[in-house]
Amino acid sequence: RMEQKLITIPVVVHIIYSNDLENISDDQVQSQIDVLNEDFRKTNPYVTDKWPQAADTKIQFRLASVDPNGNSTKGITRKSTTKESWGAQDQMKDSKSGGVDPWNTAEYLNIWVCNIGNGILGYAQYPGGKPSTDGVVINPKYFGSSDKGSNFYLSAPFDKGRTTTHEIGHFLNLRHIWGNSRGCGTDDLVSDTPESNGPNYGCQHGTVSCGSEDMIENFMDYSDDTCMSIFTSGQSARMHAILMEGGFRHEL
Ligand code: ARG
Ligand code: ZN
Ligand code: CA
Question: Would the CB of 219 count as within 6 Å of ligand 1?
Answer without folding.
Answer: no
